[in-house]
Amino acid sequence: MTDPTPADDAFLAILRARLGDAHVLTEPADMAPHLEEARGLYRGSARAVVRPADAGEVAFAVRVCAEARVPIVPQGGNTGLVGGGVPHGGIVLSLARLARIRALDRVGATLTVEAGAILADVQRAADEAGMLFPLSLAAEGSCRIGGNLATNAGGTGVLAYGNARDLVLGLEVVLADGRVWNGLKGLRKNNAGYDLKHLFLGSEGTLGIITAAVLKLFPKPLSRAVGFVGLASPRAALRLLEGLRRAAGPSLTAFEVMPRFGLEIVLAHMPGSVRPLADAHDTYALVEFSSPRPDAAAGAELEAALAAAIEDGTVEDAAIGASEAQNAALWALRENLSDAQRYEGGSIKHDVSVPLARLADFLEQAEAACLEAMPGLRPCAFGHFGDGNIHFNLSQPVGMDRAEFLAAWARFNRIVHDIVQRLDGSIAAEHGIGLIKRDELQHYGDPVGLDLMRRLKAALDPQDLLNPGKVVALSDKPPPALP
Ligand code: FAD
């Protein structure tokens, strides 16, 4: 990887001539928001932030950078949580100006959008057409669809609709040499050779730059019911999940779980939060049933299913939202948990998944091992339980120095990820690898799989210019250390 010296500024002049001065940012204040990631764990540097207006300008910028051997970090909303969008030299290529909805196909139920469209705007466009784009996550007001696809984002709709990868029919991608691959077909069946889009989905900007996508739309649920459920343990939560799936099938559209500590810190720190159940419980589940009918079917189904679960002892107590406002308030308890953790000092985070049947084993083993390693630690394991995906977060012991606690991150990675590996899980469930887990992937990844990844990277980006050093590294250069 070559980061040009000031003498190589010619490439910036060429970019300015085509994109305009206003879209090749070099002032530190203009670049600052693009150089740091959401949690402030990584801060980088770049020669410029380049803001093309369309796929043609993206291709032009990539060609110019390829000729000058300048690394490129694609960036959407910069909400990623693994340091993947942070540059370490080269340029940031922001997709923010490619924000058009190109086409809506009502018959085919597809939406063709540009990569820089904000996820909430994509959802709104589907909604205005009377349909649903089900990808949903707490950053949806600022993350962009290209970033969602590049990270194969998950979120709260995976149980019913799948990950971002499952919601895509076609892609348009600018390759490392500046050519444009036009794979923008909206076909439900297309076995014409290798399914190339899956190479780019989830590749975190290391194989190509996504400029547009054909997305799948779904019928819009016309009623929903939300329940907040008190349980004695994660094992009881698993039993409830099994029972609800049996009772409701596809009507079960969310199954999120949080621990007692999680609910208590949301109630303590997030204004407007209301305790949903009279007594405290070890574990809470947020469950949602949806119905394509505009009647009370979802509410009646959820009430019956929870009544049966109380009857057979699986559930200790439950509350069901009586209005859309109450439903939203119950969801907010879960969605505000990430923010609430900030008030409890440092948090060491692990985004992992294990087979559903082993989820309770994982939680028991990982919590015990972490508490043994650091008594006083406050585990806060929550998340997309129905997908087998847990955000296994550890809040620092009360009174401990934050920096001293965060310095133990690598130690806890080993403890937690060893257990994940033993249980046949994944050390990276939905946020990706980026920089933060690059070495962990090297440590735990299947050697043959890692070799294939490196070969793919070398074939598609032989100069190692697209987001170099992220996910899999072609050179031995170590990634920048955590601050
Ligand atoms: P960025 O952060 O800009 O980029 C992410 C990665 O994708 C980088 O490696 C970047 O180089 C690459 N990239 C960006 N755009 C492109 C493109 N057009 N072509 C090629 N590569 C590109 N994630 C989940 O999966 N589930 C959640 O529930 C979830 N909740 C979150 C809640 C909060 C409050 C926050 C801050 C983040 C959350 N995230 C979640 C993480 C993050 O929002 C997602 O990873 C999101 O998909 C990133 O989109 P972005 O546009 O911000 O991408």
Care to describe what's here?
- This protein is α+β, with helices and mostly antiparallel strands and 483 residues long.
- Among the domains are: 10-94, 2-Layer Sandwich (Uridine Diphospho-n-acetylenolpyruvylglucosamine Reductase, domain 2); 101-219, 2-Layer Sandwich (Uridine Diphospho-n-acetylenolpyruvylglucosamine Reductase, domain 3); 223-338, Alpha-Beta Plaits.
- Helix content is 34%, strand content 19%.
- It contains 17 helices and 19 strands.
- It has helices at 10-19, 28-31, 55-68, 119-128, 145-150, 158-161, 197-200, 234-248, 260-269, 297-311, 324-335, 337-341, 359-373, 402-406, 409-422, 438-444, 447-460, and strands at 24-25, 48-50, 72-75, 91-94, 101-105, 110-114, 131-132, 168-174, 180-183, 209-216, 218-219, 223-231, 252-259, 283-291, 317-320, 347-348, 351-353, 378-382, 389-395.
- It has a five-stranded antiparallel beta sheet with strand order 5-6-10-8-9. It has a four-stranded mixed beta sheet with strand order 1-2-4-3. Strands 13-14-12-15 form a four-stranded antiparallel beta sheet, with helices on both faces.
- Strand 5 and strand 6 (110-114) form a beta hairpin.
- Helix 8 crosses helix 10.
- It starts with 9 loop residues before the first helix and ends in a 23-residue tail after the last helix.
- It binds flavin-adenine dinucleotide (FAD).
- Residues 38, 73-81, 84-85, 95, 115, 137-139, 143-144, 146-148, 150-151, 153-155, 204-205, 209-210, 338, 430-431, 434, 467, 470 line the site of flavin-adenine dinucleotide.
